[in-house]
Amino acid sequence: MCTLEKRGNLFFLTLTGDSDHRLSPSVISSLLTALSQIKSQASRGSALITTAEGSKFFSNGFDLAWAQSAGSSSAAADRLYSMVDAFKPVVAALISLPMPTIAALPGHAAAGGLMLALCHDYIVMRKDRGVLYMSEVDIGLPLPDYFAAVMRAKIGSAAVRRDVMLVGRKIKGEEAVAMGIAESAHDSAESAVEAAVRLGEQLARRKWNGEVFAEIRKSMFPELCGVLGIAEIAIVPKL
Hints:
Its EC number is 5.3.3.8. Belongs to the enoyl-CoA hydratase/isomerase family. Pfam families: ECH_1 (PF00378). By secondary structure, this protein is of the alpha/beta class. Helix content is about 50%, strand content about 15%. The protein contains eleven helices and ten strands. The protein has helices at about 25-40, 65-70, 75-95, 110-120, 135-140, 145-155, 160-165, 175-180, 190-205, 210-220, 220-230; strands at about 1-5, 10-15, 45-50, 55-60, 100-105, 110, 120-125, 130-135, 170, 185. Strands 1-2-3-5-7-10 form a six-stranded mixed sheet, with helices on both faces. Strands 4-6-8-9 form a four-stranded mixed sheet. The longest helix is centred in the middle third of the chain and has 24 residues, at about 75-95. It is globular, with a radius of gyration of 17 Å. About 45% of the residues are buried.
């Protein structure tokens, strides 16, 4: 599940529960509810920090054990596809959120967990442990269309995308910074969150119009918005 807390202008969305923070149907629903609440409470100068309890995983992706517990392979596939479909609105909500967003990773972000991190404007990692890892090629699962669209939108280098998507390369914090995927890497989970707070406060002080911020973000990723079905919203400027 997840918790939501507001401290000043900063929203803190924290994945809780088991150390893997698997994206089960209940966790996905909890995330979507929290993002809806954040959007409804947004004001000028708001920012979001998403993190997770513990120091092993930010998120290890979809709850494959729950899918496999369905029994037959077809029933397991149906459960997996239901999670893929349910998670798509979470991605759309983050891309549309009217404020800057920061993912503070206390550990590994794998598969759907990597997607969750990439959907933020900034990623802050730790350098002593924790990797970014798209495991689908290793476990034999095709990528959903919006996963691939997020990759193309958020990872600028074709060579890095190849290594992430086709090789299953595990990217550590300092490597992610050098590749332009992460903003910074830090000595511990605690220092990564502290860095995210500093960045969030810095961004919040700009007191941007959140609706304008969201529309500019959407304009940066037209292909991704098309795959997600996100429409542009016309905003009349106040001059």
